[in-house]
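Hi everyone,

Forwarding the result from last night's run.
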Amino acid sequence: MNVPNKLTVSRFILTVAFLAVFFSRMPYHETISLVLFGIGGLTDYFDGKIARRDKLITNFGILMDPLADKILICSAFIAFVDRVPRAEGVPWIPAWMVVIVVARELAITGLRLLAASKNIVLAAEKYGKHKTISQIVCILSILTLASYHQWGALGENIFGFEPFGGMPWVKWFAEISKWVAVFLTAFSGGMYLWKNRALYLDDV
């Protein structure tokens, strides 16, 4: 197994570890979850970079790399629905946003399976790459918001700074990142479905 594929497999393992820690009661579990998810995001970047650079693109990687991404990201978003921040009565992310994210990924996966059944390979779109980056940034910002209190004065000084509105800047950033991620998720999915509409409309 080459290095990119090993990194892809490691992302499945990191997803399990992330969820186990996230739902545990162990000390600093939010911080550890942040580190695990961050490492998972880095493996996503490096496996593709190494595969393209060293021409190590394989059928295993073509199938498993996007699947590992979707499982890691969707698992995090789904897990966030169940969590409510301290002193607040709303979840880390609303369920309807998570529904959009998961529905988009299922729809695009279904479209690719349909294309594969017709011996057509659908290339990744630039909007999809932007979508993935926005989702990772969103998840990292939410985990940072949940955990920076555990980092002592350093965390409070860097992430607890309140430039305006009596609210830490990282909370503003997390809220904005949610909307950006959801918008790009819906937009990229809609564009992808529209561009490849002939695949599923020819038989209507």
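Residues 81 and 143 are 13 Å apart (CA to CA).

Cheers,
N.
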